[in-house]
Amino acid sequence: MLIIDAGTALTFDFLSDNIYKGGNISPGLAMRFRALNKFTDRLPLVSPTEYFTFPGRNTTDAIRAGVITGITYEINEYIRTFEKKRTHFKIILTGGDSEYLKDKIDYEVTCMPDIVTDGLNYILEYNAE
Length: 129
Description:
By secondary structure, the chain is an alpha/beta fold. It has 4 helices and 5 strands; from the N terminus they run βββααβαβα. 43% of the residues lie in helices and 22% in strands. Helix 1 crosses helix 2 (59-85). It is globular.
C-alpha cells in the first residue's frame, strides 16, 4: 500500500504485509506557492486554480504551471517507481489537497481526504465500547 498525504507536506508512506517500509517527505502544494513568494523578491503569492496555461504565459500562470505540474509529476513518478518494485498495490490519497490533485494523477487512487480524522474517530469509538 502506498499512502500519499497531500497536505502541508507531501508525504509518501509505503507498507507491505502490514509492515511500514519507509517513506519520503517534500513540501506540499501551499508551501511551494508560499516559498516562491517568500524567498524571492518579486514573485507574487499565487494559489491553485483548476485552469492554467501550460507552459505559463505570464508570471502567475508560470508559477501555477510549475507548482501544480511539478507536484503532479512528483506523485506520478513516485507511483511509477513503487510500481517497479511491487506489481500490485493500493494507492490511497489523503490530505487537504487530495480532492484537488486526484484527477491530475495518472494512476487509479482511492481518495480518502480525512483518513487521519476518520482513523482517530474509529479508535475513539473502539475504545468507548
